[in-house]
Amino acid sequence: MRLTFATWNINSVRLRIDLVARFLREQAPDVLCLQETKCRDSEFPLAAFHKLGYAHVAINGQKGYHGVAIASKLPLAEIRRREFCEKGDARHIAVSLTPAGGDAIDLHNFYVPAGGDEPDPEINPKFAHKLAFLEEMERWMVSDRIAGKNAIMVGDLNIAPLETDVWSHKALLKVVSHTPIEVEKLGRVFEAGPWVDALRQYVPLEEKLYTWWSYRAQDWSKSDKGRRLDHVWVSQSLKPRLGGMQVLRESRGWDRPSDHVPVIVHLDL
Known about the structure:
single chain; alpha+beta; six-stranded mixed β-sheet; 6 helices; 14 strands; globular
């Protein structure tokens, strides 16, 4: 059995529900994880997902900011929402799902804080929050052994950790999302699993890989100044089950797109 997961920072699910519908019709993943839904739970466009065949939806939203959701063709169980840094932000949701004839899989969907513009926690509270969020993620990974069973962690982690995850390592060393301290702290979260970087199982470390292109670029495709901010990690137990991945770059060129593109990972169970 093949199970397909997708993750996408949609940058307002209500504004871009037509793009979500197009993606679901064309790619038909079993599970779609969204970040930056930017709406309260009561405002989430559930009817559109149900009409497209996604009968099971778990939501953690808030008014105008952040927000994460999981839409699935498979039933969802044990829906959990964890608050980080006592901020009250909707940045995490987790579910358990069980493929037919298979074992249960825990799925965690994250939206890590972007961190503002200045990479100095002493003068930028948003950057300090981002670092504290990552530190709490690491502690939680260890204390609750999150990756100690079949688990998948996806989302907009707002960090491009590898030199080949950005268009220019040198130019972005002092730019939030690729600074050494962010890379170090995300690496500690990764090792706390320990996790497997699903995308880099198929794209060699020396090759460029992006999932985000700034709105500020006049011609995003030609300049191609991207970053890999969106990630799919799987537990060691699921590594042998990985069956391929895709970054849907072309969706960045759709009408009124998100600045992120969907990332798709297949598991052969």
